[in-house]
Amino acid sequence: MTSLFQRLWQASPSSLNRALLRRIRRLSARREWRTVTQGPLTGVELCFEGDSEEIARQMVAGEHDRFFYEDPKVKQALPHSLCWDVGAHFGYHSLTFASLGATVVAFEPHPQNAARFRLNLGRNPSLAGRIRLRTEALSNHDDVAEFILSDDLTGPSSGSHLADATKPLSRVVYRNFQRARVNTRRADSLIAEGEESPSVIKIDIEGAELLMLQGARELLRRKKPLLLLEVHHIHLMFHLRPFLEEFQYNLHLVEGADDCASRCFVIAT
Question: Of 39, 98, 103, 32, nearest to 65 (Cα)?
């Protein structure tokens, strides 16, 4: 109680206000199940809890990141493939990959996202058998790392990220996040321990894309999986492109995607 009083005494009025607003949003957020009406996930039920209405609308309408699934290379690669969903959030993409014929290993270290992921699996047993969830963060070392996250899923973003990542440009979205510790694994280490090498990898990890790929050098050299990348900082592209070109990858910027100054979408073959 003393430490709590000290923290409150030392906190600025603005930080107290922000904390109270986050608490109010969490308490008022209502869990809601919606059924997808179009696209590969038609008929699938998804759990929404404080998500933006626009994101919920896109997912229910089958529009969210659909440019990935409409690409001819992706359409050809997904059926009967093994796909890693790195930064799986609450499972929208993992469920979509499974619905298109892939077997999925999903990586999501944010505990609340992982909990909602499990809820979505439980609600959709016909697809859940094709999906396995791991809660480590993929990076360039096998260790424990600092992780920036928010337990407020009702805010403008729940985009948690490794502290060593290239920070996204939007400071407003990430200013109220907290620090935690997560286990990190190299993709190459997991494969050496028995995980099957994926032929498709989707990566959406808020600026840690290069760290993850640095831990997958053997995988990139031997298997050359198709990569679906959401690159979260324009500066990161200056490092990602030459790195992937070492492994004979070609990078294709997805035209018409929902990109902005702080991110772009890339398919690497």
Answer: 39
Determine the 3-state secondary structure of 157 from DSSP. Answer: coil
pTM for the whole structure? 0.83
What is the C-alpha separation between 199 and 196, in angstroms, rounded?
9
pLDDT digits (tens, 9 = 90+) for 182-202: 899 999 999 999 999 999 999
The total number of residues shown for the chain amounts to: 269
In the chain, what's the furthest Cα-to-Cα distance? 61
For 200-257, the pLDDT digits (tens) are 999 998 778 999 999 999 999 999 999 999 987 777 888 899 999 999 999 998 876 6
Residue 140: DSSP 8-state? S
- What is the third-level CATH fold of 29-268? Rossmann fold (3.40.50)
Helix (H, G, I), strand (E, B) or coil at 250: coil
Strands 31-35 and 264-268: unpaired
For the chain, how many helices (H) and strands (E)?
Answer: 13, 13
Which pair of structure tokens corresponds to residue 154? 């009702």
Helix (H, G, I), strand (E, B) or coil at 218: helix
Which sign, positive or negative, has the C-alpha torsion 162, 167, 168, 172?
positive
For the chain, which residues make up each domain, given as ranges? Answer: 29-268
Structure tokens, 146: 């600092």
Residue 123: count of CB within 10 angstroms of its CB: 15
Q: Are strands 103-107 and 82-86 parallel, antiparallel or unpaired?
A: parallel
- Please give the DSSP secondary-structure letter assigned to residue 134: E
How many C-beta atoms surround the C-beta of residue 126 within 10 A? 10
**Which candidate, 41, 35, 33, places its Cα nearest to that of 64?**
41
Cβ neighbours of residue 41 closer than 8 Å, sequence gap 6 or more: 59, 62, 92, 95, 96, 99
